[in-house]
Hints:
The chain is α+β, with helices and mostly antiparallel strands. It has two domains: about 45-95 and about 125-180, Nuclear Transport Factor 2, Chain: A; about 185-290, Nuclear Transport Factor 2, Chain: A (Roll), CATH 3.10.450. It contains nine helices and eleven strands. The strands form two sheets. It has a six-stranded mixed beta sheet with strand order 2-1-6-5-4-3.
Amino acid sequence: MVGVTSTARAKGIRPVLVALACVSLTACANVEARPLPVRAHVPNAAEAPGRPAADALETTVRAAVAEWNAAHAAHDRRRLEAVYDTHVRVRGGGVGGTGPLTGPLTLARDALLRVKEADFARSPASVPLVVGVELDRTTPGLPKARVRREVRAVNRIASSELTLTFSCDRARCLVEAEDDDAWTTSGQRAATLLSRPGSCVEALTRLLGSVPDARARLAGRAPETAFVVLSTPPETPVYRFALAALDPGAAAPSAIYELTPRTLEIREALPGDLTQTGDSGAAERAKRACVSR
């Protein structure tokens, strides 16, 4: 009886096991027939239409920095035109001061390139070399590159740093702001000296105020309140001044003048490209003030 009972139990168990197995297999088949849902891709800001993806953006910015430096090394105006936006904000004169044009200054691309061409003519052997680039994407659509450079000339290597701000689309990035530490440092120092009677910067301002074209643009304004120092030696090879426009809200200057150290030869870099002459007495006072600086 035991054997019969055991056999019957065994026979009764088999259908149950088979049924359980079928249920299990059916469940497995159902699971396999229902693939897990795929979440829809939501593009992030860097992948939004019209914006390069994050990696592509970095590649584009670094390529723009490389081309910007190569154009400077080649002293090639045409290549420079292709890397700058139509108007460029430059940092410099009056930063931290109280006069006109405090903070960033906006120059048309042509005006900025004329200033650079004058620098190329003064230092034809200069060759800039990028030694470091740090990217900052804090502002969407306006990536920045902190650039460290070595500028090699005859028997001299000078280090400099500046920040480039780019406006980018999928195709390219253009420089829309150039913040040069050399301009900022000398501009801040000169903004302080401008208010000191007898200082080199104050004397140069008065010399520029005696230039006939500048005097006409001053329209009765005192030179020390209308001129802004953009840069001075030793950070840059010349003294560079901007004359604020009559409109107090204008970001662009009405003129830019450059003075060569020692000789104090005056060159109008903007709007023309002219050699100018100031009052002889003002020139002698400026030479004495700047010799003792």
